[in-house]
Structure formats: C-alpha cells, structure tokens
Design a protein that fits this description.
Layout: E1 3-5, E2 15-17, E3 25-30, E4 36-38, H1 51-55, H2 60-90, H3 92-113, H4 132-140, H5 153-160, E5 171-176, E6 182-190, E7 207-214, E8 218-225, E9 237-242, E10 245-254, E11 259-263, E12 267-268, E13 274-275, E14 279-286, E15 289-296
Antiparallel strand pairs: 1-2, 3-4, 5-6, 6-7, 7-8, 8-9, 10-11, 10-14, 12-13, 14-15
C-alpha cells in the first residue's frame, strides 16, 4: 500500500514515497557523493511556490542595472540626434540661399527655352516694334472696352501684311514700366503664359514678357498679352521673381578676339537697336553671401509650327 507524502515549505516539491522509504528519506535527494539526506516529512503540508518558479523572476539589482543601461542608451541616442540637428541647422540659411538661386535660375532657363516667335502675320507689338507700319495698322484697328479683342479680325488681317519676321526668340525692346521709366529690356514671348503670373480676369495667351532689374526691389517679370485692347498704351503688369538678385550683366562673344566680354548694359547697333546677348549673369546676394549663375539664351531661329517630339 502506497502512501502520499508532502514536503515542508522549504523543500523542493511534492514527492510520492513507497513503504521502502518510510524512514523519511527523500529518494531523489542525494548529496554530490551520492549519500542520502534525512529530511523530516510532515503529512498534509503543501508547497505554495517552487524554487524553479522563484528563479525565473528578476532581482532588484538586476532591474536597476537594466534601467541604468537603458538610460545610458537613451541619453546617447538623444545626444546624437540633437548634435546632428544642430550641425544641420547651423548652415541652413546658406543651403536655402543656394537652393533659391538654383530654382530661380532653372525657372528662367525653362521660361526662356519655351519662348517662341510671335505668329507670322500676327498683330504688332514689342516683338515687331521695328516695323512702324505694323504698329500703326494694329493700333488703328484695336478698339472696344473688352480685354480680349475678339472683334478685331479685320485689323489683325490688315496688320498681317505689314509684320516682319524675327530671327531669334529673344530680343531687346524699349519697354516702359509702371513707374514711367523707359529702358531696353530682354523681351520674349510665351504662348501659354507663365505659372507665376496672375490675371485679374480671364487669362489670355501670347504673353510678351520682359526681365527688369529694379534697384531695391529685385528681378521683375513685366508681362502683358498683345491681345489686350490697350496693349500699346498701358504699362505691362509686374511680378516679382526674386528679391535676391542684385545685379544682372550680359555676355557677348567677340568674334575678333574670340573671347567673352561681360557688360553691365545691353549693346546697341548703329540704328540704336538693342543686340541680344548670348548669356545672362544673375548675381544673388544674401547676408554677405554671393552666388553668380549663368543662363544661356536661345539664339537659334525657331521654326513656326509644333516641335518634333
């Protein structure tokens, strides 16, 4: 007949003993040399937790050491992040200035690349200002108060025979701005307009644009459509491209000396007509920093019609 016996609270667990071990010797408890250990056995005593379960928990020292290591790692990562942010933000103004100069240069390059010649036989404007007969024909046939001259087909046809063809998409024209000052400016035409201009009313195509550097203001885009009724009398509208351009110079290639010459004003021929340069120099200035970018002007004739894609 077997007998179930339990160990005291400080024992290793519950064991079953056969009558052969009724002397109270735990059959599984042995010393390192194999000798038995005599433990008193009390019947009916239950063990709440085993030593194996207690060994799975962390001690207070282990928890404190883990928290200390975690805090050191957190402090190191935070210090690294703040140091990188400080290094990045230290020269943020210089990087933003360089980015602004690049974006303005690319914008102007794109707009000048999209510049086309005025339509053959179209109304006269700054692009055809060298032909006084065209200007007189167009001016005499413009009328009405509407911004879009839809009723001037006869006038446009009359001006068609008098217009002349330009050879380059970029020209130099005498433009009067909103302040009343006249000056020779780089002028070009955008058939679909530009994304930076805002019309007060319905937008019109065939925008005649000019680049003007105004001291204390920056680089301006002067624009208006030759489809407007008062194209020849009203000053063009103005849109600020950037206030950071402080100088605008022009490069001409001298075929005699085979060298580039940079000039601060546009050249004129014997008839006092402006000569378009081959390159533009934009000088950006911001808090003592200066950046100079070069824009190559398209000078080859652009045929009428759609380009080949």
């Amino acid at each position: 007949m077997s007998m179930k016996m339990t160990l005291p609270d400080n024992s290793y667990g519950v064991r079953d003993f056969s009558p052969a071990f009724d002397s109270g010797i735990h059959p599984a408890a042995r010393t390192r040399k194999g000798g038995p250990i005599n433990w008193p056995v009390k019947s009916g005593t239950e063990v709440p937790h085993s030593i194996k379960d207690r060994a799975r928990a962390f001690t207070l020292i282990e928890i404190l050491v883990a928290m200390a290591i975690a805090m050191m790692v957190f402090v190191a990562v935070t210090t690294l992040l703040f140091s990188m942010g400080e290094l990045w933000g230290r020269n943020s103004d210089a990087r933003l200035f360089q980015l602004h100069a690049r974006n303005v240069t690319r914008f102007l390059e794109g707009e000048l690349a999209r510049a086309t010649l005025p339509p053959i036989g179209g109304p006269a404007g700054p692009m055809n200002a060298t032909n006084p007969a065209a200007s007189a024909a167009a001016t005499g046939n413009r009328g009405g108060s509407n911004t879009n001259n839809t009723g001037g087909n006869a006038g446009n046809n009359a001006a068609a025979a008098a217009t002349t063809d330009n050879t380059t998409p970029i020209s130099v024209q005498d433009i009067r701005d909103s302040t009343g000052n006249d000056g020779q400016l780089i002028t070009f035409q955008l058939p679909g307009g530009s994304r930076i201009i805002t019309w007060p009313d319905r937008a019109l195509p065939n925008i005649v644009c000019s680049l003007q550097l105004r001291e204390g203001t920056g680089l301006l885009l002067l624009w208006h459509s030759y489809l407007e009724t008062n194209f020849d009398t009203d000053a063009p509208r103005e849109t600020l491209i950037t206030p950071l351009v402080t100088a605008l110079t022009y490069d001409y290639y001298d075929t005699d000396s085979k060298a580039w010459k940079n000039e601060t004003t546009l050249r004129t021929d014997n008839n006092n007509q402006g000569i378009p340069p081959q390159r533009l120099h934009l000088i950006f200035t911001y808090r003592g920093q200066k950046i100079e970018n070069v824009i190559v002007l398209p000078s080859t004739p652009i045929p009428q019609g759609l380009p080949m894609l």
